[in-house]
Amino acid sequence: xxxxxxxxxxxxxxxxxxxxxxxxxxxxxxxxxxxxxxxxxxxxxxxxxxxxxxxxxxxxxxxxxxxxxxxxxxxxxxxxxxxxxxxxxxxxxxxxxxxxxxxxxxxxxxxxxxxxxxxxxxxxxxxxxxxxxxxxxxxxxxxxxxxxxxxxxxxxxxxxxxxxxxxxxxxxxxxxx
Length: 177
Fold this sequence. Notes:
Blueprint: H1 35-46, H2 52-59, H3 63-71, H4 92-101, H5 113-124, H6 130-144, H7 168-176
Helix pairs in contact: 4-6, 5-6
């Protein structure tokens, strides 16, 4: 059985160059598998029909590792449980006190993340980034109960119990006559 090269797959994903050599960017360089190697392994197996041994030979990874990739097992990447804020650490109490004070303030007078950032820069000499402040303020507002109303009430009446009609189209068409 011969496997034909698929025209829909990018040529940079093909490790073999035709003369028996292997594209060196897919050789193992140590450490974890990067996403290019992960993609190469899966496409090589599924599209080109390469076996585990052949892929292991081309990439330099162990056959067990190749099998894990083909099974789709997680590779150790994941979201952090908690985000550290080393630059923002000295200001966390101050930001929390500003947001606590916002509980009694009208909605339009509350601190936004941008306002918190500008106050930190102007009043405290903060040298960190605005993105860090935005991420922390978002989490702090949720923790303090200051995030906006996110209520959603699904409308799922029992079948045959309610009906809805749009008479606007009918009204417009009768006026046009």
